[in-house]
Amino acid sequence: MKNIKLTALKDNEKTVVYVGDTTIGDGFCVIAGPCSVENEKQTIETARAVKEAGADMMRGGAFKPRTSPYAFQGLGLKGLKILKKAREETGLPIVTEVIDTRDVPWVCEYADVLQIGARNMQNFSLLKEVGKTRKPILLKRGMNSTIEEWLNCAEYILDGGNPDVILCERGIRTFETYTRNTLDISAVPALKELTHLPVIIDPSHAAGRRSLIQALSLAAVAAGAAGVIVEVHVDPAEAICDKEQTLSPGQFSIMMKKIRVLHEFMADSE
Amino acid sequence: MKNIKLTALKDNEKTVVYVGDTTIGDGFCVIAGPCSVENEKQTIETARAVKEAGADMMRGGAFKPRTSPYAFQGLGLKGLKILKKAREETGLPIVTEVIDTRDVPWVCEYADVLQIGARNMQNFSLLKEVGKTRKPILLKRGMNSTIEEWLNCAEYILDGGNPDVILCERGIRTFETYTRNTLDISAVPALKELTHLPVIIDPSHAAGRRSLIQALSLAAVAAGAAGVIVEVHVDPAEAICDKEQTLSPGQFSIMMKKIRVLHEFMADSE
Amino acid sequence: MKNIKLTALKDNEKTVVYVGDTTIGDGFCVIAGPCSVENEKQTIETARAVKEAGADMMRGGAFKPRTSPYAFQGLGLKGLKILKKAREETGLPIVTEVIDTRDVPWVCEYADVLQIGARNMQNFSLLKEVGKTRKPILLKRGMNSTIEEWLNCAEYILDGGNPDVILCERGIRTFETYTRNTLDISAVPALKELTHLPVIIDPSHAAGRRSLIQALSLAAVAAGAAGVIVEVHVDPAEAICDKEQTLSPGQFSIMMKKIRVLHEFMADSE
Amino acid sequence: MKNIKLTALKDNEKTVVYVGDTTIGDGFCVIAGPCSVENEKQTIETARAVKEAGADMMRGGAFKPRTSPYAFQGLGLKGLKILKKAREETGLPIVTEVIDTRDVPWVCEYADVLQIGARNMQNFSLLKEVGKTRKPILLKRGMNSTIEEWLNCAEYILDGGNPDVILCERGIRTFETYTRNTLDISAVPALKELTHLPVIIDPSHAAGRRSLIQALSLAAVAAGAAGVIVEVHVDPAEAICDKEQTLSPGQFSIMMKKIRVLHEFMADSE
To answer: pTM for the full model?
Structure first.
């Protein structure tokens, strides 16, 4: 780290972010849900499933940044309304992505946590805009970004007056092709020594393969992460996006149990 | 390339982009100017110097995406007004970056070419917004983006109805630290076989070292690029940003002569 | 993986490698010791310390592949004799690197496990030579090598008639500079689904920072690795190589306890 | 560069390497030939074709480092004898790879220039061994190696008493998949300011695509490289290795003419 004084690096007490009845940065927080909100049935059923399995929050995208302009771009406002219904049904707070400065004010009416996606990590206009809100921000690491650049992006938000930033490691781009990206697990202990902000991991986008999600989630617990965000779909084979990396409710439920007992063990043995 | 039908890949005639009295995609276009507009004097003097040396257009940033929130963020509207004055003085068309969807309409009143920076290459909201304008778009490659992803971003603009996209290779992020980034010179012939859009290179951001700019610019000519965009400042030692990679007017002038004769030679020997 | 039939990929029973009285691929194996053998005192004292803390084997380099020709290149034969003494004192099997085809026969007289270092992963002559021995081979992943290339290197050894290959993930080279390399933790579950060979991790070379070793080792346990290899020196501040990433005996001892209880917990909860 | 005093970095006169009747480091040297020596007919015919087109030296592999142990590993001694015959027929000096310390003495009897391949760049035993010979060494850059590491490897050879090192940039490994590797063209001017050793490029392995070779070779000339090494095969469709990146004699001949006139133009305009 260069010799810079960032609020993110200050020797503060650990930041605990409060979201509804739950927290991030204190215990182990599991956020689960579909890549994108496809329709009401899919979303509500998935919400119920992840709630039952013990998730703390729900994720789901209404605005989807997609490589191709001809791919599904998300349901927009309609999607946000479905997410609101999912929250009413299950009580789970909603984490959803915002991708345009103009959308920030009204997306805040539906979201409990605003997500800044990897491709927008250095969209500084957007960072400034969400820094003005009073919603917690889940800031994904850009897939080509150093830890130092990432912390500077968190600083844009903190500098705007919003103290509630959750860092999310989601894999970086490397030459390896067996996985979609390379999960930088070292970022977890590295950030714990650098910043007071909580750090979670996204094993779904990192691995891009369903079969690796559980092992990576358990590794995240052992490495001291504050949580995970995972893709779950009531019917992965029918998911519009990311089906290769999406867990079924059954797979998620098994993993949740393992996560909970491991986290309890780790907490006890400290 | 996946088996996708992109307008960018269509077997069209080569796209020639018209900007004021000049063109990109036909001959060799040199765009030069400071990293950022700092004040009127610096900007006008630099504009005159690059004009005299033979540049075809002027670059200059009024909105600066900076790693740190505490770094100079650009002069905004005031900077655009200075750029307008530089155009009036020299006749050079202005290339300037836009970083927020909300700014697109009014930045169009000042810019001749809108630049999408590397960090915003996959800011799809911004791509859609500039796709609605009738200004040429200089689309920089994201520093971690594949050629395929880049062409898909061009497609967002084309799909919006704007046919005038200029691709700009500006170095990709690798493990090498001697240079700021690694100029992917192969992208030039690769894009020439893939797309009808013109491709230019930015040796300044790629190399991050003044001493390498000329050799890379000549390599770009020989590889068949449609132009270069280079950082020039009337007094590099005093530049607010990127001073290590900025040419003085004298250095630029020497390089311009070499570029012109080499391009003429290449054109003749085809 | 391309559609190739590698012995390494065959649907065999899990390979368990026997080394003296211990095994790799069955339980969790901890290999510890100094980067290089510097002298008898340092080596024997470190050996005793890691033995007491509960290590299963000892590592130590007599031939050091160094970036610069003017850096310490290792003690060679003298170093191997010291390692032999360390084994006699502690009973710990010795893991040591071989870097030249001509040295293989006589290094076998001292080593219990031959290490192929990251820089020699694709030194195919060396792989063929160690494939002819009957010593277990610890094959480090090249820092720029894909999992597929790595498995092909294991195949060179297996094809030579030596079935005892231990794969060691030691971090890959990426753009991140906070850590020395990026530990590819996903390689652990990936290899478990691809090959019957055991996979261990080297958090010392991956992180390059002492403060991250414990968290990464615990992550390796949780991810299902078969072991770790870590650098320990009786006096890290005086180590000739890698002092930034070397644990003291005290730090190693604390970590060992955590590793053992976590592994026991993971084994029980399966 | 760290503050190290390398012979390679000394402020010496430019090194010119003499090979038979030709030189590298003075003018523009073209080395051409097949990836591997397959048989006498293919080799001699290719040698004649590249000679006729104006190549300065011939390349051809007798020992092939291959990802898979089941791929063609080269003809060994038999291949070297064929290369010797090719030299007798055409007068072209022979560049061929050596991969094992044990082979260095006898390979020297056949080769005019010893090549150290990318995978062996940090095989320090091999570097020391070729440093003892009096043959010029063509040292390829490791595909994951920094310029600093590469110069240190040259130093191993110089330190052995062999002053004739030719550096060869052959593409580095990045995330881009359209090309086989990413040619780091900036390495050419970077090395020209760092070292007195000549630097050539290998566009064939960098691009991995026949259609890009000519543009990259011309870029190398313009960037100031001392030469290129390219793969040519009398019948590319039948080549055992690298057929996608191999030029036919006809394609090579057209390119040679363009290279020669461009180099002449560059030399004149300095």
So the answer is: 0.95
